[in-house]
Amino acid sequence: MNSLSITIAKDVGFCFGVRRAIDVARKAGKQHGKVAMLGDIVHNERVVNDLKILGVTVFEDMENIPADMPVIFRSHGTTAEIWQQARTRGLTIIDATCPLVNEIHVAARELEAEGRQVIIIGDPGHDEVEGIASQVSNPIIIANQQDAGQLQKIRKAGIVIQSTQFRENVNSIISVLISKISDLRIINTICKPTRNRQSQLRELAEKNDVMIIVGSFTSANTKRLTAIAKTINPNSHQVQGPEDIRLEWFRNANLVGVSAGASTPDEIVVEVTEKIGALPL
Ligand code: SF4
Questions:
Q1: If we measure between CA atoms, which residue out of 69, 59, 56, 64 comes closest to residue 29?
Q2: pLDDT recorded at residue 264
Q3: From the candidates 45, 63, 103, 128, which is the catalytic residue?
Q4: How many Å apart are CA 187 and CA 121, to the nearest integer?
Q5: What residue segments make up the domains of the chain, in order of their start?
Q6: 128 annotated active-site
Q7: N or C: which end of the chain has fewer CB atoms below 10 A?
Q8: Assigned architecture for domain 16-97
Q9: 221: CB partners within 8 A, 6+ apart
């Protein structure tokens, strides 16, 4: 036991959409024995392995899913083309899309119906962004301020935003787009769980000597949280689990803040916190 005071962010671990999707997958595994999923449900190895035990098999391609196996569509949404393919193949679809992602789909279609060029602020190639893009024809995807700078002038456009984007990145993009588009409508679709998580992270990074962010190195969301924390507190570190904790980070420290990416299971956060609390300082 040491004298470190550890504060865990109020919202850590799975966001509501991911919790819901994992729940759906668990129930489906129990009910059907075997169910298919296109890609991992979250970017977290432990969760994926737990679901495997319950009969959830991950497939990379729709064609390889056996005809008698129901397929789960994940929380961050699925492209219109894949929905169509699954229907054409007659597969039973179990839809675990987060309702907040569905709202982004609706918003994108609404902007297009208003005759606007749809712009998505998000990471190209990310499943959620691909799902949003598939709702409209010819969307433009902008990942950063540099992309925004290359855009031609547009008369009438509308913006939706990937649910997990950081406000700093979005603001920097919009500051450029505003000078290029005369009739611009912005629908802020960064979801509330993401906004809460980001503001808690900023506050903890400010108030603590050391900031620990728990999550897989394959999770873009966790990496972003770490990047933001580092800009506020250089003594911020991302760990995948207790094994990554380094004693030297905590020398001369009293206060430790802990946050986690939206795909990190609660028990890993607990394990990391226990390890910090037991460091021989
Ligand atoms: S990050 Fe937000 S929109 Fe995405 S799954 Fe979680 S709650 Fe839903």
A1: 56
A2: 87
A3: 128
A4: 11
A5: 5-13+193-277, 16-97, 100-190
A6: yes
A7: N
A8: 3-Layer(aba) Sandwich (3.40)
A9: 43, 164, 215, 261, 262, 263
Output the CATH code of domain 5-13+193-277. Answer: 3.40.1010.20
Q: Which residues partner with 121 through β-bridges?
A: 142, 161
* Distance from C-alpha of 222 to C-alpha of 181, rounded to nearest angstrom: 32
- Please check whether residue 258 is in contact with residue 272, taking contact to mean a CB–CB distance below 8 angstroms: yes
- pTM, two decimals, is 0.89
Q: Which atom, in ligand 1's list, is nearest to the CA of 104? A: 3
The single residue listed with the structure tokens 């699954």 is 86
pLDDT digits (tens, 9 = 90+) for 16-67: 898 999 999 999 999 999 999 988 877 677 788 889 999 999 998 899 999 9
Q: What is the CATH number of domain 100-190?
A: 3.40.1010.20
Q: Measure Cα distances from 65 to 37, 92, 144, 189, 241 in Å.
A: 9, 11, 36, 32, 33
Angle at Cα 113 formed by Cα 107 and Cα 117, nearest 5°?
Answer: 80
Same fold, 16-97 and 100-190: no
Q: Find where tokens 């961050």 sit.
A: 76
Distance CA 239, CA 225 (A): 12
Q: What is the pLDDT of residues 115-126, one digit of tens each?
A: 999 999 999 999
Nearest Cα residue to 263 out of 122, 76, 96, 133: 76
Find tokens 């397929």 and name the residue: 71
Q: Cα(194) to centroid of ligand 1, in Å?
A: 7
Q: How far is CA 130 from the centre of its chain?
A: 14
| Position 134, amino acid | S
Q: Which atom of ligand 1 is the closest one to the Cα of 191?
A: 2
